[in-house]
Write a structure and sequence with these properties.
By secondary structure, this protein is of the alpha/beta class. The chain folds into 2 domains: about 190 residues, 3-Layer(aba) Sandwich (D-Maltodextrin-Binding Protein, domain 2); about 120 residues, D-Maltodextrin-Binding Protein, domain 2 (3-Layer(aba) Sandwich). It is about 45% helix and about 15% strand. The protein has a 6-stranded mixed sheet, with helices on one face. β1, α3 and β2 form a beta-alpha-beta unit. The N terminus is likely disordered.
Length: about 350
């Protein structure tokens, strides 16, 4: 009932369970393709999201969940949702930064926001959500909400103990982190998340970012990479996002739009808190399995941040909206004392 009250605040009208369950109400059925592999903790979050939407809507909005690649390959989700092939995707926005450079700033800022709540508050309290929706509107899509969580580690087949050890390595990074990695001397391939395990297993890459520690444990990376590199400078805080086809979104009554946003924000909270606890537990599992955890020297991390700041500026210059988001994020970081 608490969240129904929240929906009432958003829509301006209070929704009672009886009203939401009225048989006279139209039932909407959407196809929804996830970002993460089945069997991982983030995929479980999507299953809970689907159930929560059904619960809050009284069965009036049904999301049919599909794993990555079931409807279209991950890298084609943007075009598929834009064209209405299916209605909803969970995605990592920088996958599509070639279409709009501003999207690079919506998934993670390498060496940027150090904590998830800093990134989350930029979205909801410092204008980020409005900018994200502006970025997608021109593609006939609606950005519902981010799912924000903490750092992602790097998993490596070889030890990385200093910046010089990155040179000449084959790596998987995406977004602006790809550019930073290249400046550190790596050869980078932006593989989809689901392809990281086989690429490490077959030696196509030497190291990779992929997801949080729990998701990576669930995916079995301990079997193919014997080193974890911290801190996760490439994604100190990460946002994935729920994005809908604009016509499908506009076809929903206001209360169902509010339910989607509320359920999406609950998912962000759920993933953040679960990620926080289960990452600590997963790190112990990796260590017990025999994986070595390596922490880069602080002076090296500082050097990476200086490189990253130049990459931010590079992407900011690629489009007017990218510049607007860059200025908003750096302004907020200065407010928080994270930038001078």
């Amino acid at each position: 009932m608490v969240f129904l009250g929240i929906i009432g605040l958003i829509t301006g009208s209070y929704i009672t369970p009886a009203a939401s369950e009225s048989p006279q109400k139209k039932v909407y059925t959407w196809k929804f393709q996830a970002l993460w592999d089945p069997g991982t903790m983030p995929y479980q979050i999507e299953k809970e999201f689907v159930e929560r939407v059904k619960e809050l809507s009284g069965g009036r909005l049904i999301l049919k969940l599909y794993p990555p690649g079931a409807l279209v390959p991950t890298m084609q989700m943007h075009d598929a949702v834009r064209k209405g092939v299916f209605e909803l995707m969970k995605t990592y926005d920088p996958y599509y930064m070639g279409k709009e450079p501003a999207l690079a700033f919506l998934g993670s800022l390498p060496a940027g926001f150090p904590e998830a709540w800093d990134y989350e508050s930029w979205f909801w309290e410092f204008g980020g959500i409005k900018l994200a929706r502006e970025a997608y509107k021109k593609f006939n899509m609606y950005y519902i909400a981010p799912t924000v969580y903490g750092f992602e580690p790097q998993h490596s087949k070889v030890p990385i103990r200093s910046l010089k050890d990155y040179k000449g390595k084959k790596a998987r990074f995406v977004g602006m982190a790809l550019d930073v990695a290249q400046r550190l001397g790596m050869s980078v391939t932006p593989l989809p998340t689901a392809e990281v395990y086989p690429a490490l297993e077959k030696g196509v890459i030497d190291l990779a970012d992929r997801g949080g520690l729990k998701a990576n444990w669930d995916a079995g990376l301990q079997e193919v990479a014997k080193y974890i590199i911290l801190p996760g400078w490439h994604q100190p805080a990460t946002a994935t996002s729920y994005v809908a086809n604009l016509e499908a979104w506009n076809s929903l009554p206001d209360d169902l739009k509010a339910i989607l946003e509320v359920a999406a924000r609950e998912s962000s909270m759920r993933l953040f808190t679960r990620h926080r606890v289960e990452s600590a537990e997963a790190l112990k599992k990796f260590i017990d399995y025999g994986v070595e955890v390596i922490y880069l020297p602080e002076e090296d991390v500082k050097k990476i941040r200086e490189i990253a700041k130049e990459v931010w500026k590079k992407y900011a210059a690629k489009s007017p909206l990218a510049r607007k988001i860059y200025e908003s994020q750096t302004s907020y970081m200065r407010l928080l004392g994270l930038l001078k």
